[in-house]
Design goal:
Elements: H1 2-15, H2 25-45, E1 56-62, E2 65-71, E3 75-80, E4 83-86, H3 93-99, H4 105-109, E5 130-135, E6 141-145, H5 147-150, H6 155-163, H7 170-180, E7 189-193, H8 207-216
Length: 221
């Protein structure tokens, strides 16, 4: 129910966006806040839903950048130049302890409370949303996944699958690996390959710079 309310709110927000301009980080974050409020209001009216909440992680791509908003313990990975990087921070009690230096990462992987969220949509009236902007590059591979993927599937396997070509079927292969690894939780994955980007032009340039660019392209001798 909570996840349904969150996604419905995002869909409504997306349908209201103008096609001639890209939304900024604050606007995308406001959609998350609306989703949080929708769940919060629903819970207030339905006593049997007390404590209901959901994680939500989304990337909004426009031209050569992605606005990433995140609440919860789903993750977004970026593979660029052979290097795998986790773009999101886990909002769990155990992860908070690791970041505070009170628990080491090895012990955290098997901690019995590692799935308890420290932040989720709908649990509180007001929520803090992690928001970041990523400049994309051709060849980037992105993975959005639940803890049911990154729990049983190692970073090395994630890197290997994101690097495989052709790219189609990447998400399914990761789900299959999670199931084979005995993942006890929901295994959800979305894989995105940025194979090319639109050409962007500077807002201001001089005629001298323009001629220089043409020369670099071999158009002027």
């Amino acid at each position: 129910m909570a996840s349904g309310l969150a996604t419905a709110t995002l869909k409504t927000w997306l349908s209201s966006q103008r096609s001639d301009r890209a939304a900024g980080p604050a606007e995308v974050e406001s959609a998350f806040l609306e989703a949080n409020f929708a769940i919060w209001e629903y819970v207030k009216k339905h006593a049997d839903c007390q404590g209901m909440g959901t994680t939500l992680t989304a990337g909004f791509i426009s031209d050569n950048r992605m606005i990433l908003c995140h609440v919860g313990d789903s993750r977004v990975y970026l593979l660029r130049g052979g290097e795998l990087k986790q773009l999101t921070t886990d909002h769990t009690l155990v992860a908070e302890q690791v970041r505070a230096g009170k628990l080491d990462a090895v012990a955290a992987r098997c901690h019995p409370a590692r799935h308890i969220l420290s932040r989720a949509l709908g649990v509180r009236e007001f929520i803090s949303v992690d928001t970041a902007i990523l400049e994309l590059a051709a060849g980037d591979a992105l993975l959005f996944c639940s803890d049911g993927i990154y729990g049983p599937v190692s970073d090395d396997n994630i890197r290997e699958e994101l690097a495989r070509r052709p790219f189609g079927g990447t998400a399914k292969r990761l789900v299959d690996l999670a199931c084979k690894g005995g993942g006890p939780d929901n295994a959800t994955a979305v894989a995105v390959l940025i194979d090319e980007l639109p050409i962007t032009y500077p807002g201001r340039y001089s005629w001298r710079r323009f001629r220089s660019m043409l020369g670099e392209w071999g158009i002027l001798g």
